[in-house]
Amino acid sequence: MNLEAHPKRITIVGGGLAGSECALQLAHQGIPVLFYEMRGTTMTPAHKTSQFAEIVCSNSFGSLAEVSAPGQLKWEARKLNSYVLQAAEQSQVPAGQALGIDREIFSQTITHWIESHPLIEVKRELIHSLESLPRPCVIATGPLTHDDLAQSLRHHFDGDFLYFFDAIAPVIDADSIDSSIAWKADRYDKGTPDYYNCPLNKDEYMAFIQAIKDARKIEPKHFEQTPFFESCMPIETMVSRGDQTLRFGPMKPVGLKDPKTGKIPYAVVQLRQENKEGTAYNIVGFQTRMAYGDQKTVFKMIPGLLNAEFLKLGSIHRNLFINTPALLNPDLSSKKDPQIYFAGQITGVEGYFESTCIGLLVAQRLIAHLKNRLWNPPPRESAFGSLLNAITDETKIKHFQPTNINMGLFPRPDETFTDKVEKKKAQIQKAQSSLETWAHTIWKN
Questions:
Q1: Taking phi first (over 0 means left), then psi (-120 to 50 degrees means alpha), and beta for anything else, what does residue 112 get?
Q2: Where is the domain boundary, 313, 330, 350?
Q3: Is residue 177 domain-shared with residue 308, that is, in the same domain?
Q4: 403: DSSP letter
Q5: What are 217-221's contacts with CB under 8 Å, separation 24+?
Q6: What is the pLDDT of residues 394-421, one digit of tens each?
Q7: Is residue 2 included in any domain, yes or no?
Q8: How far apart are CA 410 and CA 226, in angstroms?
Q9: For the whole model, what pTM was predicted?
Q10: Alpha helix (H) ranges present in 134-224?
């Protein structure tokens, strides 16, 4: 078969997890793929090999627990025949409740599948520009996209699309906020009471500052040595400028009277709603390089957050991602050119397996298009649907941040639950039944 002349050939750029999953999904549906990967001729600052789906950081794909968001995402990916998941399970190593993998066996397996597939043509070349790519194409180049292609993407989106630092504040399950301590209000009682406010007295504030100083910090990698913007300064950097800095920054109490005392607290931590459903709140302005374990200890010192359940912890690291809600269609194609699709971390998902699943979704969208089938996105109640909604929700355009899969992304169950575990079980059950129906539909067609 002459793949180059095939009218339905798809071009994919980027041989990471999302690109690899997308390529294998398409090829196993009889759709030829032209697969570009620059490693082999041009390396990134982080990768060590030229193999596909190389794991450069943690060798964990997250929890396998049945009543958890990461566990449910894997359950759904298994139903949808994820090839990356199959390779991960074949290279699994003991890791408790997590899916740990032998990274060498894993990437070797994916590389063998791709290079030996008759419908996948691999080209070890650097793509400098979108203009050189045939359509349809998928850009899955990840957070370390080469500068030339990044500039081409910037031009495509009229210069306003890329974020080069991923500054994430911790996100907390709304049900774990103690509303007997934290109260909802806006400053000076203007507008609507949208923020939770956690009050600190002077002793609590000074103890909190000391805990931040004492916490273990994650140092940036050599290729992340870029000055911070003032608007996304790590809280520990602010603290290094003086003990009172946070009181004049994200913890300023101005215009916030504690209804229990009628007085303005010494300092206030604000929580802002993270999603439309109101199931999750982020700690405003609390980007941090503190180690994950230390974050939990330090942030639980905040009055009202003693029993906080963290859906996502804070981080700051180099990343390159698109403001997806503003610039992409709901099917992850460019609003400026619907024949260009994006997959993986570049769309604003965090985590290896989340990136994989976005690659799988884009493949399903292309399969439907090429086989003249109606494309229905995954149901909102599912993990796939919740993750897709999180990165395409247009209400997040002004405050878009990358996210991993977590229960705060799922819709609230119709029933009211006092037990958190029972609530999660209800959400998982709804996710599984809806995904089963959707999967049956796409395979039947």
A1: alpha
A2: 313
A3: yes
A4: B
A5: 217/289, 217/290, 217/291, 218/289, 218/290, 218/291, 218/315, 219/289, 220/289, 220/317, 220/318, 221/45, 221/46, 221/317, 221/318
A6: 998 888 888 999 999 999 998 888 898 9
A7: no
A8: 35
A9: 0.76
A10: 147-156, 202-214
